[in-house]
Amino acid sequence: MQNYDLTLKDLLMDGAPVLLQQMTGGAEVRLMPLEVPVVGGGRLDLFGELDGNTALHVEIQADNHAAMAVRMLGYLWLALR
């Protein structure tokens, strides 16, 4: 499934500002083309900001991931540090 995740990520990086702008109610989206390493392995998929003051974090999952909620809590904890 990782190939699907990478393909979705590439598609979103190319067309994401318009799609994400629609998903966020019209807020301007500025994506940062980076992959932030995360303690314990893995990386953030998409990270950016909305209207210059709100962080946006999007994870791409092509299938169900049982521990996704815990994983997202870990990302939040890192961001709050």
How many DSSP E strands? 3
Distance between the termini: 31 Å
Content of β-strand? 15-25%
Please describe the biggest sheet, giving its number of strands, its sense, and whether it closes into a barrel.
3 strands, antiparallel
What tags apply to this protein structure?
single chain, 81 residues, alpha+beta, 3-stranded antiparallel β-sheet, 2 helices, globular
Sum this structure up briefly.
The protein is α+β, with helices and mostly antiparallel strands and 81 residues long. The chain has helices at residues 2-23, 68-80, and strands at residues 29-32, 46-50, 54-58. The chain has one domain.
Report what the structure shows.
This protein starts with a helix and ends with a helix. The model has no long low-confidence stretch (mean pLDDT about 75). It is globular, with a radius of gyration of 13 Å. The chain is built from two helices and three strands. It has one domain. It has a three-stranded antiparallel β-sheet with strand order 1-2-3, with helices on one face. With about 80 residues, it is an alpha+beta fold. About 5% of the residues are buried. About 45% of the residues lie in helices and about 15% in strands.
